[in-house]
Design brief:
Elements lengths: L15 H21 L17 H13 L6
Length: 72
């Protein structure tokens, strides 16, 4: 590995590309889901007795996955 002196013309790339790609992926999934979802009981986001809290768990998992990473 070659050490380069500071200011050698190369920019260090951040993780913004992956961050944007993640949001684009989520938006694409939600768009595909909206277009292909069949009408019926499973299409509703309302909770029922047989739901067992899975809708809330899925929404919480998306929220945790979409949050920005912690900085040190």
């Amino acid at each position: 590995m070659v050490k380069r002196p500071p200011g050698d013309g190369r920019r260090r790339r951040g993780g913004q590309g992956w961050f944007v790609a993640g949001y684009v992926g989520i938006a694409g999934f939600l768009a595909l889901e909206a277009l292909t979802r069949q009408p019926g009981r499973a299409a509703s986001l309302e909770t029922s007795a047989d739901d067992q809290g899975t809708t809330r768990m899925i929404v919480a998992a998306y929220g945790v996955a979409a949050r920005p990473p912690a900085t040190m």
